[in-house]
Amino acid sequence: MTSTLAQKSAKATQGEIDMTRHYSAFSVFREGLKGHKGWAPLWRSPAPQDAYDVIVIGGGGHGLATAYYLAKNHGIRKVAVIEKGWLGGGNTGRNTTVIRSNYFYPESTRLYDLSVRLYEKLSRDINYNVMFSQRGMMVLTHSEAEMEIASRTVNAMQINGVDAELLDVKDVQKKAPILNYRSDARYPIHGAIFQGRGGTGRHDAVAWGYARAADQQGVDIIQNCEVTGFLIEGGVCKGVETTLGKIRSDRVGVAVAGHSSVLAEMGGYNLPINSYALQAFVTEAVKPVMDTVAFSPMTGSYFSQSDKGGLVIGGGLDRIPSYAQRGNTPTQETVLSGIIEMAPALAKVKLLRHWAGNVDVSPDSSPLIGPSGTQGIYINCGWGTGGFKAIPAGGYVFAHLLATGNHHDISRPFDPDRFRTGRLLDEAAGSGIAH
Amino acid sequence: MQRFSCPFCGLRDEREFHFAGEAGKTRPDTTQDVSDKEWANYLFFCKNTKGPTREIWVHTTCQEYFIMERDSVTMEVLGTTAMRKDTA
C-alpha cells in the first residue's frame, strides 16, 4: 500500500512540476496571460505515512507554525500535522486578528514581542501575504488613576524594549475620532497606552501561509484525521491512534487550544486549563471610521475595522466553562453595550456575523509550553483569548522544544512546572489583560 | 440566556452565578507533609471535562455554594444539589 501511495504521490508531483508556486507580481502577470490555470495547490493532501520524526496534533496556527519552524530552523522535515477538521477551522479562524506585545512582565514581553517581530517579516519569509497592518493598538484609560497605572505600564514596556507611548485625550481623538469624547460619558476618555507596532493581520492567511510553507519543506498536512488515542508503550508515547490508523513517532506535540484537556486525558497527563467560549462579532461594512484598534478595560470591549469595512468586535470570555463553539447572550449584551459606550455613533450599525471559539484559559493567564508529564508528549496551550498574536513565537519555541527536547530560553518560564514552583506569570494582574 | 437552579432560590438568570471549580477534589491533609505537586494538583490542575461535568458554583446573590451537573458541550443543566450538610 505504501509503495502505491508513493507512486501516486510521485506522479502527482511530476504533473505539478511546471506549476507556479512562488507568489510575486511577475507570477501574477504570467499566470494572467495563461488564464490562471497554472497555480499549484497550496499544499498536498498526502495519506499518512507509518512513522514520522515529529507529529504535531492540531492544524491551527500554532501547529502549522511549529511544523514550519521544525523544518526551517531545525532541518526536521519528516513531520506530520494532524488536524481533525480543516486547517485554521478552530480559534485561528475565529479570532479578532489583533497582534500586539503590550505586556508587563519581561518574560511575557520576550515571548510576545518575538511574535510581533516574526509577524513583521512573515509575509516575506513564507511568501504569503498575511496582511499584517501595524495600525497601532490603544488601551484606553477612563480616569486620572488609570492614567497613572497606564504610565507605569508604558514605562514597563519601554524598559522591556517594546515601543509604547502614553497618549493624552487629544492624541487619542486624533487617532480615533469616532470614540465618545463627551465629558458626561459614563467612562470619559482620559488617554491611552499606545503600541504603534501593534495592529491586525489576516487570520486565515496565517494558517494557509504557514501550511503552504511547511508543505513546501516536506511536511505532511493531514486534514480530516482525528486523534483518538496515544500509543503508550512502557509509559512512553510512541505515536498516535487516529481515524486513519496508527502513526508512530517518538515526539508528539499537542497544540489544540480549547481541546487540550481532552488530549491530556487520552495521554495520561493533567493540565491546569479550563475551556471557555470566546465570542467575536463583525458588522456590515461601513466607510472607514477606525484605523487603529481601541480597547476599553472598563467595558472589556474592543474593536477595529477590517479592510472590507466591517467593524471587528471582541470582548471578554463567556463566564461558563464550555466546549460549545457558540456564545451566550449575556456576554453578547456586555460586549456590544461596551462598544456603544465607546462609540455611540455605532449603535445603529447592524451585525453581520457572530461566532465563538473554545479557548484554553490557564490560572495565570499565560501559556503552557513544555513536556506534558508523559514522556514523548509535549504541550503548547493555555494561550486563552490571545493565541492568534502569538502564533509565530508559539511555533518558533515549540519547534525548538520538539527538535531538541529542551526549552528555548524564551519558553522556559512558561513550563507547566511553574504551578509547582509558584513562579506564576500573572498577566491578568500585571498588564490587566484578561487572558 | 440560560437559567440555573439555585437549591435555595430556585431558577435564576445565569448572570447571578459564578463558576467556582470542578467538584470532587479533596484538599490535601495538612497534618501530613504535602508535596508541591499535591498542592499544585489541588489548586490548579483540573479535568476540564468535555461532556457531562460536575462543578461547584456559587449563586452570587445568596452566596450559597452548590453542585451543578451539566453538559459542557450542549450546555444542558442536568441538576443542582446543595453542598451544605444538615446541622441537626
Q: What is the topology?
A:
The complex is a heterodimer of chains A (435) and B (88).
Chain A: H1 2-15, H2 25-33, E1 54-57, H3 61-74, E2 79-82, E3 98-99, H4 106-125, E4 137-141, H5 144-159, E5 165-168, H6 169-175, E6 191-195, E7 199-200, H7 203-216, E8 220-222, E9 227-233, E10 236-242, E11 245-248, E12 251-254, H8 260-267, E13 274-285, E14 293-296, E15 301-305, E16 310-321, H9 329-342, E17 351-361, E18 368-371, E19 377-381, H10 391-404, H11 418-421, H12 427-430
Parallel strand pairs in A: 1-2, 1-12, 2-8, 4-14, 12-19
Antiparallel strand pairs in A: 3-7, 4-6, 5-6, 9-10, 10-11, 13-16, 13-17, 14-15, 15-16, 18-19
Helix pairs in contact in A: 3-7, 3-10, 4-10
Chain B: E1 3-6, E2 10-13, E3 17-22, H1 36-43, E4 52-59, E5 64-71, E6 77-82
Antiparallel strand pairs in B: 1-2, 3-4, 4-5, 5-6
Describe this structure in words.
The complex is a heterodimer of chains A (435) and B (88). By secondary structure, chain A is α/β, with parallel strands linked by helices. Chain A has two domains: 44-133 and 198-272 and 364-435, 3-Layer(bba) Sandwich (FAD/NAD(P)-binding domain); 137-195 and 274-361, D-Amino Acid Oxidase, subunit A, domain 2 (D-Amino Acid Oxidase, Chain A, domain 2, 2-Layer Sandwich). Helix content of chain A is 32%, strand content 24%. An eight-stranded mixed β-sheet of chain A has the order 5-6-4-14-15-16-13-17. A six-stranded mixed β-sheet of chain A has the order 8-2-1-12-19-18, with helices on both faces. A three-stranded antiparallel β-sheet of chain A has the order 9-10-11, covered by helices on one side. In chain A, helix 3 (61-74) packs parallel to helix 7 (203-216) and helix 4 (106-125) packs across helix 10. Chain B is globular. In chain B, strand 5 (64-71) and strand 6 form a beta hairpin. Chain B starts with a strand and ends in a 6-residue tail after the last strand. Chain A binds chain B through residues 259, 261-262, 265, 270-275, 319-324, 328-330, 363, 419-422, and chain B through 1-2, 13-15, 18-19, 36-37, 39-41, 43-51, 53, 55, 72-75. Chain A: It is an enzyme of class 1 (oxidoreductase). Chain A: This is Sarcosine oxidase subunit beta. Chain A: Its cofactor is FAD; FMN.
